[in-house]
Amino acid sequence: MRDLAIRYWRTVTRPSAYYSLGFLVVSGFVAGVVFWGGFNTAMEITNTEQFCTTCHEMRDNVYQEIQPTIHFTNRSGVRAVCSSCHVPHDWTYKMARKMQASKEVWGWLFGTIDTREKFLAKRKELAGREWERMKANDSRECRNCHEFQAMDFTRQSKRAVDAHSAFLAKGEKTCIDCHKGIAHRLPDMANQ
Amino acid sequence: MRRTAIFFFTSFLLLGNAFSQHDPLRGAARVDEVGKAAPMVNAENNDKKRVRSYAMQPPTIPHKTDNYQVDRFANKCMTCHARTRVGETQATPISITHYQDRDGNFLADVSPRRYFCDQCHVVQMDGVKPAVQNRFRDVETMIRNKKK
Questions:
Q1: Closest approach of chain A CAs to the CA of B88, in angstroms?
Q2: What per-residue string of b and e applies to A127-149 under the rule 16 or more CB within 10 Å gives b?
Q3: Cβ contact (<8 Å) for A181 and B76?
Q4: Closest chain B residue to A159, measured at CA
Q5: In this predicted complex, what is the ipTM?
Q6: Nearest Cα to A182, choosing from B59, B68, B92?
Q7: Which residue of chain B comes nearest to A66, CA vs CA?
Q8: % pLDDT > 90, chain A
Q9: Are A85 and A142 in contact (CB under 8 A)?
Q10: Most buried by CB count within 10 Å: which residue of A76, A77, B8, B117?
Q11: Taking the domains of chain A in order of start, what are their residue ranges?
Q12: Residue pair A113/A57 in contact by the 8 Å Cβ criterion
């Protein structure tokens, strides 16, 4: 094993005998572009609604529930897809979240929530995890679209103005504190 | 003579009925047609308390309640109108009757028979005229008119 490692190390560190420096630089550049492009394209595919709803856990539960809500159908036709809220848009945070999300593949393999009943039983835990995440990062994914600085209080209802200027402006509360269950149904909220 | 009179009278009634078949709920559509639905409007959302028509009337909701979840898992209304929440939200607390069971005993939380808010409390749509007129007068108006 050690010998094998040493042999590879020698091959890698030895100067190239047959290929010109130009060829190596150019082909390295091209391979880099292909790899990076491919990686990001694959990453983008896993961010689409079509990808998420290929699993029936998503398609039959949460995807059905978002459809009557304002984030799916509304007067201006702007739509938030799964990843708009559940995956950070910033690259570093996005990679971290994607790695965490690989656990969901495990859950899918072992059918953790493969029936409606199992899903409902686990919903509080699942929702709680998202609420925690939103609270910890000051509802960053909400703010990707709903920027506080861009809110026109004169266009909001009185109730919204009161709440936003009293609690949101001071940073006392963050979006998710009040806006729970706006895109999916709520879990059992008794003793919440 | 009398028979002729009855005949004319009934045919007059029937005819009159046929001409005035305008149903306030269905619009001008004929019985075998599907009427054109009125355009949708939003619920009033100005948070102004409305006058109740009689003392026991469940107050109407002065704000939008679109997509409010009220089921066995959660009650969205209670996130503001519950006894313990009104300090923060300044919403109207649900009345004391909502904590009573049907025998008049007071419970710790909202009584199951009062749980589904929109069985009694409803929003009012913005600028919609009532499709069917009614002659309801509240009790104060009746008393005032009687005195005159």
A1: 9
A2: beeeeebbeeeebbbbeeeeeee
A3: yes
A4: B47
A5: 0.75
A6: B68
A7: B67
A8: 88
A9: yes
A10: B117
A11: 20-51, 53-187
A12: yes
- Max Cα separation, chain A? 76
Q: Which residues, in sequence order, are bridge partners of residue B70? A: B75
**Phi and psi at residue A135, to the nearest 5°:** -65, -40
CB A48 within 8 A of CB A83: yes
Task: Tell me if B47 and A185 make a contact (CB, 8 A cut-off).
Answer: no
Per-residue pLDDT of B66-84, as tens digits, reads 989 999 999 999 999 999 9
A128 and B CB contact within 8 Å: no
- The CA distance from B24 to B19, in Å, is 14
* Mean pLDDT of the residues in chain A: 93
- Phi (first) and psi of residue A108, to 5 degrees: -70, -45
DSSP designation for B95? P
Rounded Cα distance between B72 and B116, Å, is 10
- The CATH architecture annotation of domain B41-128 reads Orthogonal Bundle (1.10)
Q: Which residues of A touch B62 (CB under 8 A)?
A: none
- What single letter denotes the amino acid at residue B57? Q
- Paired with B72 in beta bridges are none
| Chain A interface test: which of B69, B85, B110 (most A C-beta within 10 Å) | B69
Write down the pTM of the prediction: 0.78
